[in-house]
Amino acid sequence: MKKIILTLFTAISLTSVASAQTVTLASYDIPVSTTTISSVAGTAASGVTAGSITIGSGLTLASSAGGWRATGYNQIGQDAAALAAANTGGDYWAFSMSAQANYTVTLTGFGSVGFVGSGTSPKNYALLYSTSSDFSSPTTVVTSTINPGSTATMTTTAWTSALAATPISIAAGNTAYFRIVGYGASGTTGTGGLAGA
Predict the structure, then answer these.
(1) Residues 115, 194: Cα–Cα separation, whole Å
(2) Alpha helices of 24-175 — where are they, by DSSP H?
(3) How many C-beta atoms surround the C-beta of residue 180 within 10 A?
(4) Which of 81, 183, 170 is CA-nearest to residue 123?
(5) Which of 27, 24, 26 shows the shortest CA–CA distance to 4?
(6) What burial letters (b/e) apply to 8-30, b meaning 16+ CB within 10 Å?
(7) CA-to-CA distance for 107 and 91, rounded, in angstroms?
């Protein structure tokens, strides 16, 4: 199985009681060509716990040599209502980050990740953040648009800029929850996901 490394939150200020440093917070070995792997564990920096990336309940894995893809994106709208419906409908990839005792984590950037899809894939991906695992009151950090049927890397620009402008801080002992939500598919069976190349 071909795999890639997905790096999340590059340019992170990880502050212990004694010092501050900028590090890669977490990285993930993303599978491709699979319909069976629905969760991938992360490797984290010292002072951080990286939760696994998991597929949302509204999606079904779809094998692709080009990425870790899913089908079932069913929101065709590209507005805030469609984003909210996709989020509550489980059309996302989820993960979490926790700051361990004596550490404060400040998220100021997003590392390397791409999105890939078929001609019916979501046109929009949004990064949502919440302090609760049930996402009852999520914050939209940033949204981006891709061309269906293509591979797009969008996080090194708009996503990093959004976090640099409004950093997310995680206090010691707390957890931040994230979802990458896909919406704006051209049909109710849109296929897309994390790129493998």
Answers:
(1) 5
(2) 80-88, 160-165
(3) 22
(4) 183
(5) 27
(6) bbbbbbbbeeeeeeebbbbbbeb
(7) 24
Query: Of the candidates 172, 94, 168, 167, which has an alpha carbon nearest to the alpha carbon of residue 133?
Result: 94
Report the alpha-carbon distance of residue 87 to residue 57 in Å, rounded: 10
Task: Give the residue among 14, 72, 45 at the shortest CA–CA distance from 192.
Answer: 72
C-alpha–C-alpha distance, residues 163 and 39, integer Å: 25
Residue 62's Cβ-side half-sphere holds a number of Cα atoms within 13 Å equal to 20
59, 64, 103 from 192: Cα distances, Å: 10, 9, 36
pLDDT single digits (tens) 178-193: 999 999 988 777 788 8
Helix, strand, coil percentages (3-state) for the chain, rounded to 5, are 10, 50, 40
- pLDDT tens track for 44-79: 888 889 999 999 999 998 877 777 888 899 898 999
122 vs 129: CA distance, rounded Å:
20
Query: And the tokens for 5?
Result: 């490394």
Cα distance between residue 35 and residue 55, in whole Å: 11
**CB burial readout 58-88, b (16+ within 10 A) else e:** bbebbebebbbbbbbbbbbebeeebbbbbbe
pTM of the model: 0.87
